[in-house]
Amino acid sequence: MKFIIGQIFGLVALAFTALSYQTRSSKKLLVLQTIATALFSVHYFLIGATSGLALNLVAILRNLIYYNRDKNLLPFNLDRKYCKGWFFPCLMTLCIGIMGAFSWQAWYSLLIIIGLMINTMYLSVQSPQTIRKSILLTSTMILIYDIFVSSYGGIINEALAITSSIIGIVRMGKPEEK
Q1: Rounded to whole angstroms, how far apart are CA atoms 136 and 57?
Q2: How far is the C-alpha of 106 from the C-alpha of 126, rounded, in Å?
Q3: How far apart are CA 165 and CA 22, in angstroms?
Q4: 8 Å CB contact between 119 and 93
Q5: Deepest of 31, 75, 83, 137, by most Cβ within 10 A of its Cβ?
Q6: Distance between CA atoms of 33 and 29, rounded to whole angstroms?
Q7: Measured between alpha carbons, how far apart are the two ends of the chain, in Å?
Q8: Which of 31-35, 64-68, 118-122 shows the lowest per-residue confidence on average (mean pLDDT)?
Q9: pTM of the entire structure?
Q10: CB 55 within 8 A of CB 112
Q11: DSSP states of 62-76 as a string?
């Protein structure tokens, strides 16, 4: 029963993922991605995929910090200074690597670890179109991970994420008609 409930969470998360690739705003993309990532954390927990769970929790933190990088949340504008340069993406990439090592399941854990590391670096660019392009690589890696952990919701999600990302690249790549 726990496995089935986990798959339901994965299916709900995929709806948010697909929707996120159709927005023009980096902020909206991050909000929808964060919701999907939170749902996938529950999904991975319920199906026993520890690497997926741990790394998605780090990704939630990463997304929240990226979302708020233009706000003065830390004293002395430290968030602006570090979140807009390469320091924060490198720090988060290191955190993903460390969490990946602690949650290691098997060699296929490398797929989700490297996929989220790449995704973290591309999120720092703040370009929805660049993020969509990076999803083609990272979602393919996570798709393979999902096959190994029997994450049926995840498999469908990543296949749809790849498709949705391609649609977004084509749709948003065209200049708007006046």
Answers
A1: 21
A2: 33
A3: 8
A4: no
A5: 83
A6: 6
A7: 53
A8: 64-68
A9: 0.77
A10: yes
A11: HHHHHHTTTS--SGG
Burial 55-73 (b: 16+ CB within 10 A, else e): bbbbbbebbebbbebeeee
- CA 65, 143, 172 angle in degrees (round to 5)? 60
**How many residues are listed for the chain in this entry?**
178
Residue type, 144: I
- Residue recorded with tokens 């996120």: 20
- Give dist(CA 159, CA 147) in Å, integer: 11
23-37, 77-91, 100-114: least confident range:
77-91
- Give the C-alpha separation, 63 to 81, whole Å: 17
Distance CA 117, CA 172 (A): 25
Tokens 């980096």 sit on residue: 26
